[in-house]
């Protein structure tokens, strides 16, 4: 038996569909508005939702993304009397299973419904590998379990995978886990941050070059695609690739052959691509900033990682595990964790997601010193105010805003300004923690010496607390 929800404001259609679903042995319920539909869709698990577009409180497409990403990830069939090709395109972009125009006969609706339910049955029958290696991935919320199911399915195939999610949600962690759980686990996992590759060096980096291929090519160099032979190539921030490299990469993906710069022959390479982005690639395609054919190539399988604020249950589990890990790592006695401390963590929005949470936990442990347990007072002040019902704070001092403040709202910082401010505060915490110990600074922050040094320099800071110019050479 499947569970079917019908969201339509026409009582006749609803009764017809409820009857139809029950005759086929399914459980069915109905909702007459977007709001009612969304509440019901999120309160109970559904296998299939039949969604009208023209509802009294808005267009069904408005809630489609929330429906398909809902706790039970139902299939959604659009049923509409005002369908047009653009609406259908949008619906498919947002993950609808099918699009049926009204009026329809019993047969016309029976086919897509039975196909959707058969697909769903097949999907749930496919077992995730029993031995999924996920040690580093913490979280048991329904959202995280859905992502782990996707991870298991992606690992069992050879298909390319696109992982989407905000910064710090664990895209790289998932990419590594796909590789480690795949048949390619024994071969290399090669990661490249596409945003950090200068356009002029990109071809050489991806495809390699022969000695003398260009001025400065004093020796032959293997490209990262060849390095990933037999294994997985992880393209982080793929939305940052220039059009030229998108084109060259598409060719490599289609042909599975590459030609290093200056080489006479093409060589075959067997590699799997996992890509990640925090951008909306479909919008970039519409704006002609990303190739549609490349998007199709890399998106055979999609994993959407939800932000931490959408899975607050995971915060406690991540915090407990990370605190224990950090305590073990630095050989400091285990700390107790107060319920208030967890409550304060859960009240924050975490725009930097798990990465930001981990940084704050490091700070709290440093601030706690010899105290036996962690309390809200050990959190950075700005993270403590989240539990208070106060007016929005003014913008951080010196942080430029986007100029889009209106209606008396507090100025809103630009993302770049917010990140720079967060970087500076993080560095200050780090300086206070390591008291001049460079190795400890690198170990705690996970930054290389050169990255740490240049970030310190950018913010006019030094590990010793003196002016950077007076600091030791690295
Ligand atoms: N579910 C999780 N459980 C435990 N640790 C996690 C989880 N998700 C992320 N992390 C940790 O958070 C940090 C950031 O993760 P990761 O680099 O994979 O994120 P990302 O989405 O690739 O970030 P970005 O887009 O900024 O590159 C890492 O230290 C990672 O180990």
UniProtKB/TrEMBL annotation:
UniProt keyword Chaperone present: no
Residue ranges occupied by any Sigma-54 factor interaction domain in the UniProt entry: 137-366
Entry keywords, A to Z: ATP-binding, DNA-binding, Nucleotide-binding, Phosphoprotein, Transcription, Transcription regulation
Spans annotated as Disordered: 374-412
Domain Response regulatory: from-to ranges: 3-117
4-aspartylphosphate modified-residue sites: 52
GO molecular function: ATP binding; DNA binding
Annotated signal sequence range: none
Parts forming coiled coils: none
Pfam families cross-referenced by the UniProt entry: AAA_lid_14, Response_reg, Sigma54_activat
InterPro entries: AAA+_ATPase, AAA_lid_NorR, CheY-like_superfamily, Homeodomain-like_sf, P-loop_NTPase, Sig_transdc_resp-reg_receiver, Sigma_54_int, Sigma_54_int_dom_ATP-bd_1
Domain of life: Bacteria
Gene3D superfamilies found in the cross-reference section: 1.10.8.60, 3.40.50.2300, P-loop containing nucleotide triphosphate hydrolases (3.40.50.300)
Gene Ontology biological process terms from the UniProt entry: phosphorelay signal transduction system; regulation of DNA-templated transcription
Protein name, as recorded: Sigma-54 dependent transcriptional regulator
UniProt organism field: Desulfatitalea alkaliphila
């Amino acid at each position: 038996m499947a569970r079917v929800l019908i969201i339509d404001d026409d009582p006749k259609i609803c009764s017809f569909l409820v009857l139809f679903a029950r005759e086929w042995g399914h459980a069915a319920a109905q909702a007459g508005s977007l709001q009612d539909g969304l509440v019901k869709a999120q309160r109970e698990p559904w296998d299939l939702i039949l969604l009208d577009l023209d509802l009294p409180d808005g267009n069904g497409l408005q809630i489609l993304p929330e429906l398909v990403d809902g706790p039970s990830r139902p299939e959604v069939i659009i049923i509409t009397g005002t369908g047009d090709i653009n609406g259908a395109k949008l619906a498919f972009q947002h993950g609808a299973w099918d699009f049926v125009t009204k009026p329809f006969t019993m047969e016309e609706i029976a086919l897509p419904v039975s196909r959707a339910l058969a697909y769903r049955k097949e999907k749930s029958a496919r077992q995730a590998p029993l031995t999924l290696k996920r040690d580093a991935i913490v979280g048991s919320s329904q959202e995280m379990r859905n992502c782990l199911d996707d991870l298991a399915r992606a690992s069992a195939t050879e298909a390319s995978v696109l992982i989407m999610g905000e910064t710090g949600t664990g895209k790289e962690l998932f990419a590594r886990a796909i590789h480690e759980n795949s048949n390619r686990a024994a071969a290399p996992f090669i990661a490249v941050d596409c945003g950090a590759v200068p356009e002029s060096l990109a071809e050489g980096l991806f495809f390699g070059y022969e000695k003398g291929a260009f001025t400065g090519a004093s020796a032959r160099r293997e490209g990262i695609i060849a390095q990933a032979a037999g294994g997985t190539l992880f393209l982080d921030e793929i939305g940052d690739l220039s059009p030229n490299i998108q084109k060259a990469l598409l060719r490599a993906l289609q042909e599975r052959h590459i030609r290093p710069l200056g080489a006479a022959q093409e060589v075959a390479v067997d590699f799997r691509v996992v890509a990640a982005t925090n951008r909306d690639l479909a919008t970039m395609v519409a704006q002609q900033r990303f190739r549609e054919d490349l998007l199709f190539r890399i998106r055979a399988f999609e994993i959407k990682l939800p932000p931490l604020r959408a899975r607050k249950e995971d915060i406690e589990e991540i915090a407990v595990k990370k605190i224990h890990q950090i305590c073990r790592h630095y050989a400091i006695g285990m700390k107790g964790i107060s319920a208030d401390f967890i409550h304060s963590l859960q009240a924050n929005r975490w725009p930097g997601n798990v990465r930001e949470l981990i940084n704050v936990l490091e700070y709290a442990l440093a601030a706690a010193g010899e105290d036996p347990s962690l309390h809200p007072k050990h959190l950075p002040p700005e993270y403590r105010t989240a539990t208070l019902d106060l007016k929005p704070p003014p913008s951080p001092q010196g942080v430029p805003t986007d100029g889009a403040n209106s209606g008396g709202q507090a100025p809103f910082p630009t993302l770049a300004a917010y990140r720079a401010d967060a970087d500076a505060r993080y560095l200050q915490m780090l300086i206070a923690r390591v008291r001049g110990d460079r190795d400890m600074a690198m170990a705690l922050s996970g930054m290389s010496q050169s990255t740490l040094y240049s970030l310190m320099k950018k913010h006019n800071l030094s590990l010793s607390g003196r002016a950077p110019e007076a600091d030791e050479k690295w």
